[in-house]
Amino acid sequence: MIGKLKGLVDQIDEDGLIVDVGGVGYLVAASARTLRTLPALGQPVTLHIETQVREDSLRLFGFLTLAERDWFRLLQSVQGVGAKVALGILGALSGEALSAAIARQDKAMMARAPGVGPKLAARLVLELKDKAPAFTAADFAGGEVGLERAPKLTRAAEDAILALVGLGYAHPQAAAAVARISLQLGQDPQTATLVRAGLKELAQ
Q: Which residue of 36, 134, 135, 138 sits 20 to 30 Å from the alpha carbon of 170, by its own alpha carbon?
């Protein structure tokens, strides 16, 4: 199995790219978001690879961050979501937007992605509400943050999430709200500040 490719960007089209690795060109499918942020032709690139083997084919899917790759895997755990739809969702919505849509059970936001109708959007936000991590914009900024490497919450953030859960909010929604607020406020906000801001965020 191929887990990572390092090479030069040889060609880019609307569905993917060719990565030249030592003279061998690998055809890699990618989301529109990834394709928009690739280096220029001839420049070095490193892609995290998801390999899918079928009876009659072997396909490579490339991602600039582990977070995007892990979202790709997670989205396909939902019935009716294959690789093409998963890439479409990732091209239309950032990791932060996906987390927000799931936390808020926002079917309309999820349905913005190509290939996602109202029924599938409802299934996505419902089935992923207990699985989706509270990704933030930083996770898609080129770092190595994925599901297995999600940043640890501060004690204040953990306490704030527990407080919000105690007030009746579901844990995924509380965690996503606190993650977004922590990113906005910075400088390790205190529990009381996070709870107040979290209540305001969740009430919207």
A: 138
